[in-house]
Amino acid sequence: GDIRDLSGTLYFYGSFLGANDVINSPYTVQANGLYSSNYTITYFDGYLKIDLNEVYVIANDITKIYDSIPYKDIPVSYQGFQGNDSSANLTGSLLNVGSSLNATSIGTYLIIPSNLFSTNYNVLYKQGTLTIIPAPLYLNLQSFTKIYDGTTDIDNNNLQSNIIYSISGIINNEIISIISYTAKFKRHTAG
Questions:
Q1: Per-residue DSSP letters for 44-73?
Q2: From CA 74, how far away is CA 65, in angstroms rounded?
Q3: Beta-strand pair 128-133/107-111
């Protein structure tokens, strides 16, 4: 006997046709359509198993200027979706479980995404960082004059009670004041 003993057209059917998700896996694969005058053909079902793929939820690194507002955002990007899948295929609510949540002070904090799920993907996370940098603050002093004495010194005792200045760039009406200072002229020469 050789292959010429088989006739017909082999075809496959079963639940695997159109299979595209993990949740209903495994799918049956069945065959039929061949016959032989010399053999009795018995077909055994097979199975198609679809395993989870991986998708990454990547926290984006963020730098923001100090504004005294607690940090709540969790900007992310995604890698690994197949076909037309997108973040819409994930369930759950994206959460930040890192030290950046509610951070307000100058410093570097972790952004750690969490709490997303999928029936077709193993959801993996990559952390990012939030860096809060100082906000600019501007101190505008009045002009001072002194009589030439060959030094850059200013009589700070008299100046301290008479100094006039303004501060701009204050965030959210925070109270900022100058506690102590020493004033000097840049040059000791007249002019």
A1: --EEE-PPPEEEEEEEPPEEEE--SPPP--
A2: 16
A3: antiparallel
Report whether 30 contacts 14 (CB < 8 A).
Answer: yes
What is the C-alpha to C-alpha distance for residues 60 and 97, in angstroms, rounded to an integer? 14
Question: Angle at the Cα of 175 (from 172 to 179), degrees rounded to 5?
Answer: 150
Q: How far is CA 185 from CA 54, 138, 164, 166, in A?
A: 65, 19, 16, 19
Q: What distance in Å separates the CA atoms of residue 68 and residue 176, rounded to the nearest whole number? A: 14
pLDDT in tens, 21-64: 787 889 999 999 998 888 889 999 999 998 889 999 999 999 99
Which pLDDT band, with edges at 50, 70 and 90, does 75 fall under?
very high
Side-chain-side CA neighbours of residue 57 (13 Å) = 27
Other CB atoms within 10 A of residue 109 CB:
20
* Rounded Cα gap, residues 87 and 107, in angstroms: 30
Query: Using alpha carbons only, what angle is made at residue 81 by residues 80 and 84, rounded to the nearest 5 degrees?
Result: 155
- What single-letter amino acid sits at 72? K
Using alpha carbons only, what angle is made at residue 26 by residues 22 and 30, rounded to the nearest 5 degrees?
135
Half-sphere exposure of 166 (CA within 13 A, CB side): 4
